[in-house]
Amino acid sequence: MNFDMNEAIQVLKSTPGTLTSLLAGLSDNWLHTNEGEETWTPIQVIGHLIEGEKYNWIPRLELIIQQGAAVSFPPFDRYAHLTKESESSLDNKLSEFQKLRMQNLNRLQALVHTEEQLELKGNHPQFGTVKIRELLSTWVVHDLTHMSQILRIMAKRYNQDVGPWIEFLRILK
């Protein structure tokens, strides 16, 4: 097993700043591009990450600690950000994500202190029994997945413009 709480927190802590550095100040053409029908734009990905901070990671962690596997996690609507119309600017979304993430990391560190706690089990509505270690590992990989997704979306905006170099640009394949 490779999971290390301190290393996980390093990635989780860096995600908001990484996304801010990548996206802040970009034109709407970059922020509102997607990969086709039923795919997300970079700004929608940030909305999804915000929803996860509010309703996924820490609420599930708290449920495991408080009730173990006796109660199933409430479902998390992975698409809720698409139905919530927001006039919020990208800067406001990034700021909200940063604030929520810092609060959640503080909560995580207040709740989980030992290796033994990482083995506590909860009940996922789809997967059945899951451990805190798996939940936290998934949180990290979820961040990395969406950062990769944003980069892929942005790269594909120039898919037809790179000409023959497409052969060497794995992100476009």
UniProtKB/TrEMBL annotation:
Listed Gene3D superfamilies: dinb family like domain (1.20.120.450)
Family matches, as InterPro entries: DinB-like, DinB/YfiT-like
Domain of life: Bacteria
DinB-like domain: residues covered: 14-150
Protein name stated in the entry: DinB-like domain-containing protein
